């Protein structure tokens, strides 16, 4: 069993996960918490190369099953090369997306079989799940509007998808929340950033047993 604490950040496009994480890091460092932050797909060299293939805007012909398997391959390499060693070293590992993204995007969004995705996740992670998942919830239209207004953000293949897919993805996350409410904590990402950071901090500190 790992000695560290694994947190995943999830949410629809434009939910602001990255901004919240950037604000949280100095707070955690002040507490003396040793933190590793990483992302999916990516995180390690092989994972980042797979990320380039998945998110390349020119790859619009990619089959949904191909997309899923690429995510799973990246997940496995990332886990064994970076995440598991950090957990064994007792670190707090914060991942920008993990297993729930496959269920929400490829399951609910693309319509692939949820049981098959669960099996692939289990296979790739040897059954590892986050100790805590922070789900940043936002109306799809608001999230996409944030992306459109942010000229610094990379435009990837998922940004070219229609509104319908993003709506299905959000419903997928809400379904996971209903199913695994003990692991997944819902954060209202439509609020001002300062409030979102404070709420996130409170949930994280409580789950980790840290003094506020």
UniProtKB/TrEMBL annotation:
Gene Ontology biological process terms, A to Z: dTDP biosynthetic process; dTTP biosynthetic process; dUDP biosynthetic process
EC number(s) stated in the UniProt entry for this protein: 2.7.4.9
Swiss-Prot/TrEMBL keywords: ATP-binding, Kinase, Nucleotide biosynthesis, Nucleotide-binding, Transferase
Chain ranges of the Thymidylate kinase-like domain: 9-198
Binding-site residues for ATP, renumbered to this chain: 11-18
Pfam families, sorted: Thymidylate_kin (PF02223)
General function of this protein: Phosphorylation of dTMP to form dTDP in both de novo and salvage pathways of dTTP synthesis.
Protein name: Thymidylate kinase
Source organism per UniProt: Streptococcus oralis subsp. tigurinus
Classification lineage: Bacteria, Bacillati, Bacillota, Bacilli, Lactobacillales
């Amino acid at each position: 069993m790992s000695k560290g604490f694994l947190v995943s950040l999830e949410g629809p496009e434009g939910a602001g996960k990255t901004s919240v994480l950037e604000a949280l890091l100095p707070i955690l460092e002040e507490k003396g918490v040793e933190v590793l932050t990483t992302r999916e797909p990516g995180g390690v060299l092989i994972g980042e190369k797979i990320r380039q293939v998945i998110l390349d805007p020119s790859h619009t012909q990619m089959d949904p099953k191909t997309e899923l398997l690429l995510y799973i391959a990246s997940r496995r390499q990332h886990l064994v090369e970076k995440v598991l060693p950090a957990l064994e070293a007792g670190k707090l590992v914060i991942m920008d997306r993990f297993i729930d993204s496959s269920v929400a995007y490829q399951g609910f969004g693309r319509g692939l079989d949820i049981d098959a995705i669960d099996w692939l996740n289990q296979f790739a992670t040897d059954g590892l799940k986050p100790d805590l998942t922070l789900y940043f919830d936002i109306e799809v239209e608001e999230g996409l509007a944030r992306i459109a207004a942010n000229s610094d953000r990379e435009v990837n293949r998922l940004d070219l998808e229609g509104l319908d897919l993003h709506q299905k993805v959000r419903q997928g996350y809400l379904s996971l929340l209903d199913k695994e409410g003990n692991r997944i904590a819902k954060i209202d990402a439509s609020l001002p950033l300062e409030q979102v950071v404070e709420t996130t901090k409170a949930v994280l500190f409580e789950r980790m047993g840290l003094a506020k």
